[in-house]
Amino acid sequence: MAVDQNNYNSIKKSFIETNVTLVAVSKTKPAADILELYNLGHRDFGENYVQELVQKQADLPKDIRWHFIGHLQTNKVKLIAPFVQLIQGVDSLKLLQEVNKQAQKAGRVIDCLLQVYIAREETKFGLDENEVAEIIAKALDFSGIRICGLMGMASFTDDVATIKAEFHHLKEVFDRSKKLMAANSVAAAESFKILSMGMSSDYKLAIACGSNMVRIGSLLFGERVKP
Ligand SMILES: *Cc1c(COP(=O)(O)O)cnc(C)c1O
Prior knowledge:
Elements: H1 5-15, E1 21-25, H2 31-38, E2 44-47, H3 50-59, E3 65-68, H4 77-80, E4 86-90, H5 93-105, E5 110-116, H6 129-139, E6 145-152, H7 160-184, H8 186-191, E7 194-196, H9 203-208, E8 213-216, H10 218-221
Parallel strand pairs: 1-2, 1-8, 2-3, 3-4, 4-5, 5-6, 6-7
């Protein structure tokens, strides 16, 4: 069995009567694995690579909600703009401007999360709190996008206290950013409601710290082989 249905069922069960959305991270995994979860009723899938996402979107059922969770290059936005459900890793104003432009071309409004840098690692992408505030202020009149919240990744470590502190920090940035939006636009603040944090190894802690969207790959699909 390609998908760990026991893990899937127990995670889904634990989310009943919570407001937590499970995004199944299917990067590098075959379409057949995605279909297996799809046939259990799952619709939210996350991908990191544009070419792979475009191919899977073409091959798989059209009611799948595709989340782009990787680092998105500006010149590739147009490839996913016609169908993407949520772009989770917006980490610059330049990228947001391009999403706005391509969304308008596609006749859509694209939901985005701003990616915040919370880890103590050089390799991860993301904004700091001041940059989030600047982008929020500038993006208020972008009609092709909606900033629906924040996304972040904790440090790759076994030290629970470190991870917890990083998640708490992101929750605080989220709360302050929402207030900032409310000062400008009540409607914009109402749409700002997704806090995407937590992966296979730390999703329970993330939810305890206020996450309402988790991105889980290896617990559902098994370990990935590096592409
Ligand atoms: C790959 C990936 C995940 C899933 O990681 P797992 O540890 O397999 O659950 C979650 N979020 C992002 C941004 C990823 O790139």
